[in-house]
Amino acid sequence: QVQLVESGGGLVQAGGSLRLSCTASGIIFSINAMAWYRQSPGKQRDLVAVISGGFTNYADSVKGRFTISRDNAKNTVYLQMNSLKPEDTAVYYCTCNTGGRDYWGQGTQVTVSS
Questions:
Q1: Which one-letter DSSP state was computed for residue 9?
Q2: Is the dihedral of CA 25, 26, 30, 31 positive or negative?
């Protein structure tokens, strides 16, 4: 059974940085895309960044501040978040697509204080 475990969330002041990690276990088939989403209270879950092969894409709100990367040997995806803003506060979820299915982690809280 595929499981995703996120880590690296926490409380940071505006302008600070955090690095999120997400490791997938139980992988049988190759992983296609991996991505990060985020959800604030009362809002929908939105795509933050996605990586598939050499392709990356970002939400406009995080372009130039966040960087997604991946270590295929470790089945791990990272999200480096710089110049954090209070509006980046949310629960961040990672997801991967493998074997024709999407799997989700449990989420990690990121709180940016002003």
A1: -
A2: negative
* Most distant CA pair in the chain, distance: 43
Of 53, 49, 33, nearest to 102 (Cα)?
33
- For 27, phi then psi, to 5°, come to -75, 125
Tokens of residue 17, six digits: 């940085």
Q: Which of 25, 15, 13 is nearest to 75 (CA)?
A: 25
Tokens of 90: 């949310």
3-state SS, 61-88, equals HHCCCEEEEEEHHHCEEEEEECCCCHHH
Q: What is the pLDDT of residues 2-29, one digit of tens each?
A: 999 999 999 999 999 999 999 999 887 8
**58-70 residue pLDDT tens:** 999 999 999 999 9
Which amino acid, 4? L
